Amino acid sequence: MKKFILNLILIVLVLSLGIGGFKFLSQQKKLPVQENKPKPLPLVKVMPVQLTQYQVQFSAQGLVETKDKVNLSSQVQGKIIFVSPHLYPGDTINKEEVLFKIDPSNYQLDLQRAKAILNELKASLTLLQAKAKTSIWSWQLAYGQNTTVPALVAKEPELKQLQAKIEQAKTNLELAQLNLRRTLIQAPCSGRVIERKVNLGQFVNPGQILANFYPFSSLEVKVPLDLNQLAYVHLGSFVLIQGDGFKNISGQVVRFDSRLQPTQLLNVYLKLNASPPHLVPGAMVKVTFWGKKVKGVSFIPRTSLHDLGQVWLVKNSTLQIRKVKVIGQRGQKLAVLGLKQGEKLIVSPLGEVKAGMRVQVME
What we know:
Structural class: alpha+beta
Number of strands: 22
Distance between the termini: 88 Å
Strand order of the largest sheet: 3-12-15-14-13-16
Largest sheet: 6 strands, antiparallel, barrel
């Protein structure tokens, strides 16, 4: 029994020493040192910024309008005896083309009457002048050559009165000639018919509108522009206009509207240097503006412009974010303001981006 207890004590002692030694050796074991290897920097491709001068170009949609409308009206009364076959809506009329004729019979009679009255008065004047000469000669024969002939003897009042009647007759003759010419109603300029209001055989009065049309020269294009676009447009700015059935009609800016629209757009009006047949009021056209010349412009790829009009730059391996202003385009490149000569613009894509992050430029 004693031997068994002694053996048990020895076993427990050996086990205790083994466990203690294992703990001691475990505490003395050194943990491996972890090495902090630096993460690789994102690689970026860059292009140097080149500044140049650029004439701003941009396109906008415009609406064709006419600023003037011609109302053809009669200046005399009478019956319409002729209507031009070119007076249907949309027809083209030429300058000085006869569009209406009013019965001239009464006005021809008025002209003959005015001529007869004038001729009669001229004959009366000739007769009175002869009588006046006779009276003056008789007076001078009776009272001497150096005596003053009285006005009544010289028939001066009668002569003045008759001369005044002759002047009035001349005026009446001119009026009769004018009224006769007014029976022919001609187009004052070339244009396109809007509406005809009277027909053959109809009786018209002075001031009555017979038809209306718009002159080709009154066609213009109205283009709404925002304030950024307006900054580069001035009176006389060159434009090219394109539309259905025609293209590249040149023109220029002739005036600006007097107030902004509620949408903060301002209407710009363009004069056309030609009027093709397909160009009519109400047509939508594309207008390309050639605006002011601007210095300090750089052309960058479209893909290098990011949200909020920002670009990424690299300086001393550090990424910078900068906002630029786009003022135009040329092919697949944008014309922008806000960059400096020689700066390095990032043109390759990146994942998460923040200002100040370190990047590595591709060689």
